[in-house]
């Protein structure tokens, strides 16, 4: 049976820079490993979080398992302060889309350093 742990794979051109990007948004490094000379970093929103991002080097994966290096999945992050997070990302020169209101929630997207789009939703 499934449990409440979830790991989401992200492929990056530069694992270190991608990890630093997510850490600048408050994520915490859970682990750092070398896999055949390539870095693999695992991050979580909090130390207690059951959902982790696992960042692999895109070139390493394409070389060793090209069928696994599909585009990153679409992720929707949740926030209790969407407007505050939006402003924080803007202050860090992160590319963000316009904020839209859908019902009682706000939604916007942002782009990481590898050109992957992510969505933030919440109040």
Automatic annotation (TrEMBL):
Residues 8-118 form the Glyoxalase/fosfomycin resistance/dioxygenase domain. SUPFAM superfamilies: Glyoxalase/Bleomycin resistance protein/Dihydroxybiphenyl dioxygenase (SSF54593). Coiled coil: none annotated. Transmembrane segments: none annotated. InterPro entries: Glyas_Bleomycin-R_OHBP_Dase, Glyas_Fos-R_dOase_dom. Pfam families: Glyoxalase. One of its GO terms (molecular function) is lyase activity. Keywords: Lyase. This is Lactoylglutathione lyase. The gene is gloA_2.
């Amino acid at each position: 049976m499934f449990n409440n742990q979830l790991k989401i794979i992200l492929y990056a051109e530069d694992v270190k820079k991608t990890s630093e990007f997510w850490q600048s948004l408050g994520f915490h490094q859970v682990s750092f490993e070398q896999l055949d000379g390539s870095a693999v970093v695992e991050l979580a929103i909090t130390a207690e979080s059951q959902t982790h991002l696992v960042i692999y080097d895109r070139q390493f994966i394409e070389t060793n398992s090209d069928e696994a290096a599909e585009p990153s999945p679409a992720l929707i992050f949740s926030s209790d302060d969407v407007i505050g997070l939006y402003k924080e990302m803007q202050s860090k020169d992160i590319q963000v889309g316009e904020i839209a209101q859908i019902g009682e929630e706000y939604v916007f997207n942002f782009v990481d350093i590898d050109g992957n789009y992510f969505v933030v939703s919440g109040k």
